[in-house]
């Protein structure tokens, strides 16, 4: 008996989870860099999602979004919560032991600490545009020491258009 063939152009797991991270990043109010993160179990179940934004209760409209200001209290860096940290903290109580983190931008040193302490064992990232800066060198040093693997997911060349 003839059977239908399955689709062949479905998303790979890596494309799917990075796509979800990128979609989450579109929620960010940061005019400079929008980052998304998606945490996935070893069995490829989504455990949590996050994007960079102001802490809950801290108004997006009152907080500064500038990179630079003579007054450091008027820069976003004092306040913004990174996508990876939001994803780690937002998970609905599930253990993150052995989980994978998909993120559009390589984690900073502070997020690396949270990644290690939460039990995440692999980081899959798309972009590493700040690689030469000390926070990212420190991040890799800690991830290496703690046995957290990381790998870049190269652009697959696919573009996905969503009609909303
Ligand atoms: N891995 C990361 N996850 C993040 O969520 N972020 C956030 C913090 C800021 O809101 C923004 C970076 O701003 P900029 O310096 O590129 O204008 O992205 C930044 C990094 C880079 O370490
Ligand atoms: Zn960070």
TrEMBL record:
Origin: domain of life: Bacteria
Which InterPro entries does this one have? APOBEC/CMP_deaminase_Zn-bd, CMP_dCMP_dom, Cytidine_deaminase-like, dCMP_deaminase, dCMP_deaminase-rel, Deoxycytidylate_deaminase_dom
Q: Name one GO biological process term.
A: nucleotide biosynthetic process
GO MF term set: dCMP deaminase activity; zinc ion binding
Ranges for the CMP/dCMP-type deaminase domain? Answer: 12-150
Which Gene Ontology cellular component annotation is one that this UniProt entry carries?
cytoplasm
The protein's required cofactors:
Zn(2+)
Keywords tagged on the record: Hydrolase, Metal-binding, Nucleotide biosynthesis, Zinc
Query: Which residue positions are annotated as catalytic?
Result: 84
Cite a single Pfam family from the UniProt record.
Answer: dCMP_cyt_deam_1
Sites where the protein binds Zn(2+): 82, 108, 111
Family, according to the entry, reads as follows:
Belongs to the cytidine and deoxycytidylate deaminase family.
What's the protein here called?
dCMP deaminase family protein
Q: What is the species listed in this Swiss-Prot or TrEMBL entry?
A: Bianquea renquensis
